[in-house]
Design a protein that fits this description.
homodimer, 560 residues, alpha/beta, six-stranded parallel β-sheet, five-stranded parallel β-sheet, 20 helices, 39% helix
Chain lengths: 560, 560
């Protein structure tokens, strides 16, 4: 900056303004690059220190993205505006830009960046991968700056999509969502689901940064260093791309980021050619170094090669403008309306409950995978089209998007056929590690759907959701219990799965009956009962019919 | 053909040969088109008849693909060579072309085609969707001409990929694999996994036929009738595409198929613009007709509009050339070699067992999702590189590809981290409905992997595979039991899941110990036992340690 001032004082008046600006800019860039180079050196030191101390982790996958992430978090455009706007004291601040490490194994870099930003001490960083440290091997929400737990590849972009959807359509805030992607993980189909849906919704606030370091876990990726091949695929899906030939050259990276951040009406992917293990000679661009830390001796040698970093170097973040998220006015919760003995499918009751709840929960959002006329999520869509998002036939991305919305404070209901929700098992599992507040509804559960056959029957869904820690699994037997349990699901913070039936069933309960989570009901009892039939959902009706037959045969049984 | 002969007799000698050929060809095409038009009319009648009789099903999604499938199965190129070569009396004949309905809900068309080919009577066709009929709502292997069960969208291409991989690299036969795809299902990420892997392996024998009927279940698809948008995406992934502007015009469809079948070194996608419900005025190109049969009255009206079909029209298929699949010479099964008390990880034993078995099972194939150095499938790869296929980080397609290989008679072992295999839940579930002979191995199971964190831990995998009907779930506790159980898995026809551990464990068994499927072992017992510790896999070692501690405290416990 000193140099810049000198130029200004001595030459400004005699030179043409444009020439002066150009030189000022160059000087600024030069200074900025030197500062970033120092930051990069320090980041590399921290990455090596924490992984060698832990004796495990992924230093090489972290080293390839050092310049990309340093430039993003601590760099600025040619006008001096920082790329990344974040209030480091308030990670959950609605105006903060979001940064997701989809390649979660680059966690050493992730933590090192937050150490540079002053939010972790070196001592804390060295607890990496140790018992009780929030700095887990792959980021989880135990660390306050983790937007979403990652580590199962190919999920971060979908989560980012949810956050960008929130920015554009719900909170209506100008924050940007950045997602660091690995080249290996671009082979996951879920990525392409996210890529297509982000284009569909014109998410100009979503910026992917692809770290094309060529090497996967056990060999070269499908496209190696061919960044054009990556670009062709992504452009064909409707994204703008920006290519960076050398992802370790700050000048190129800064220019690339500036181009990527030109606000447009669609998402942008910055694709950078990098070297895995960059800066550590014995591992740089070499196969066989995935997920391997350096030994103490190797790390010592590598640190000597890197050279001394300016002591005590830190970098600061700039807070974004304080804008207020869009508010929606709240109405009054209406009561479910049913006639005694009415025949209503529980999926219909699910849709009705969503519509009732939508009026009192302005933060409520509903996603469906192109079957909303079957799941009956369409009843919410008709009432609140601005809070319903069609996710098309792409269940995995639907769940990741829901997670992104949920992390941004939305109450998200996600529906599809129970049979097809299982497709997003890995995404549901990972959502749990992000402590998500997500509600799932699987329709057409069980064999009662009949002639459509096993491919459409949700038979595994209860077991599936029961494996998810703390997930509440609900299987209502009639329309009233469904409506009340959807209310209970909305009120419960955490993950809930509700299973609905395709066919109509007779009402079993009065609308004033209460349904606390975790309870059960005795529907038929007598002191002469000789057995208890335990049933749930549609089988309750079968159990009642069986009890009736048994009663006629002189055997009294209880139905729970 | 009569007309063609007349031309030949009267004009052949006076006209130029090329002109003569052109006219002959036109006449031939004209006759072929008339015949196909009649076949198409009959197919439409059958589609309406069976769905209206069933009172459910997807007539409109079937009607859009009538010309595409009639031309494929019963049409020929301009030289008169049939596109589809199939011996209808031997569905499993290795030289048959394969046809998979990835859009399984178009089953009425699928069955109608086989009725036309003389393999179903009209009476049998009318059992569609009825109890005990092999003609299920979505095709399963209960019907002999179903290549693979479909109905969960976005899986057929991956299955076809497996069959095409078999044709090119294993059986080395020239059969082609055709996959009928819906436009809606192109939003499933698994499709793009298959698209990229098919390009990677240069599968010229794989031909996708995309029925772009514009409408999904509850609205327009992402790209509507924009077939160029579909083509851009697929070409960017390395496929050749052939566009058909009107998928109901036989001339265009036949030309398109001829172009698609020019043998190249990569897969081809024929993309045709069609109308959902084509030929039935009240439903044609209209939203709201997905999965809805016509009423008796509507069907009557539609049949009148279609007009009479030539009575008793049938179509025959041409059998392919009788070529012999490639044979691999068989060696001798070696014995596992371990020293008593040795420390070996069960994942290592899995890899060793694969290598031993590969020598005696020429039909054995191993797939892995870019983690073969972790799962140790790499030991097989080193021994038999021609029977190992890298599936990259794309688990869903890996399972569908394995299914395709398995249906073509291969013994397929599929491995990844247990945590990431769950990503292919829906594909595993569907493989079961194809009666697949598939062996899965999930490595890095349980919390014992430690510092990598929950994203990498297989915690749900036992529950997952236990929901799959008849699936055998194995969790060996040491290297010997692992090797023997891999042998047992290979010998067992059906689905098997084997769970392995990352860390080394001590050998518990002698190499001559036997491990029948379904058994268990008592590792420590005494008449003074006061309790039994039941454990599996790595927890057996913990249980033995606990028993040791308890014994020192004077309490004897059994370990099972």
């Amino acid at each position: 900056m000193r140099l810049k001032c000198l130029y200004r004082i001595f030459y400004r008046k005699t030179w043409k303004s444009s020439e002066c600006n150009r030189i000022e800019q160059e000087v600024y860039m030069h200074e900025s690059n030197s500062r970033l180079t120092e930051i990069a050196r320090r980041l590399r030191q921290l990455i090596l220190a924490c992984t060698t101390e832990a004796g495990s982790g992924h230093p090489t996958s972290s080293l390839s993205a050092v310049e990309l992430m340093a430039a993003l978090m601590f760099g600025a455009d040619t006008k001096g505006s920082p790329f990344f706007r974040f209030d480091p004291d308030t990670p959950n601040y609605p105006n903060n830009d979001r940064l997701i490490f989809s390649k979660g194994h680059a966690s050493p870099l992730f933590y090192a960046l937050w150490a540079m930003a002053g939010k972790l001490s070196e001592r804390e960083l060295l607890t990496y991968r140790k018992m009780n440290s929030p700095l887990e091997g792959h980021p989880t929400r135990r660390f306050a700056y983790t937007e979403a737990a990652t580590g199962s590849l190919g999920q971060g972009l979908g989560v980012g999509l949810g956050m960008a959807l929130n920015a554009k359509y719900l909170d209506k805030l100008p924050y940007r969502t950045f997602v660091l992607l690995g080249d290996s993980e671009m082979s996951e189909g879920a990525q392409w689901e996210a890529v297509q849906i982000a284009a569909r919704y014109g998410l100009g606030g979503l910026i992917g940064i692809m770290d094309v370091n060529r090497l996967g876990q056990c060999g070269e990726t499908m496209f190696g260093h061919d960044i054009e091949a990556h670009a062709r695929r992504i452009e064909a899906f409707g994204w703008r791309t920006v290519l960076v030939e050398d992802g370790h050259d700050f000048k190129q990276v800064l220019t690339g980021l500036e181009q990527a951040l030109v606000v447009g009406d669609g998402p942008v992917m910055l694709i950078a050619r990098t070297l895995k293990g960059k800066g550590v000679a014995l591992a740089e661009d070499k196969n066989g170094w995935h997920g391997k830390p350096l030994s103490q001796e190797q790390a010592q040698e590598a640190l000597e090669q890197l050279g001394e970093a300016t002591s005590g170097i830190t970098a600061s973040l700039t807070a974004p403008e304080n804008l207020v998220p869009e508010k929606i006015h709240v109405g009054k919760l209406s009561e479910p309306a049913y006639e005694p003995g009415e025949q209503v499918a529980s999926r219909e009751a699910y849709g009705r409950a969503l519509s009732r709840l939508g009026a009192v929960h302005p933060e409520m959002v509903v996603l469906d995978a192109e079957v909303s006329n079957s799941t009956k999520a369409e009843l919410f869509k008709k009432e609140f089209p601005e809070r319903f998002f069609e996710m098309f036939v792409a269940e995995q991305n639907m769940v990741s998007t829901a997670l992104g919305l949920s992390i941004r404070g939305k109450l998200v209901f996600v529906s599809s056929f129970a049979a097809f929700l299982v497709r997003a098992y890995d995404q549901v599992r990972m959502a749990r590690y992000s402590d998500a507040n997500l509600k799932f509804c699987g329709s057409h559960a069980g064999v009662s759907i009949g002639e459509d056959g096993p491919s459409q029957m949700g038979l595994e869904d209860i077991a599936f959701f029961r494996t998810i820690l703390d997930c509440v699994v609900l299987y209502p037997s009639d329309a009233v219990s469904t409506e009340r349990l959807v209310e209970a699901a909305a009120a419960h913070h955490g993950m809930v799965y509700l299973r609905t039936t395709r066919g109509k069933t007779t009402l079993l309960y009065d609308v004033n009956e209460r349904f606390p989570l975790g309870g059960c009901k005795i529907l038929r009892e007598d002191s002469a009962d000789r057995a208890t039939l335990v049933a749930a959902g549609i089988t309750v009706h079968e159990a009642l019919a069986a009890a009736e037959i048994l009663a006629k045969q002189g055997t009294s049984v209880r139905v729970m």
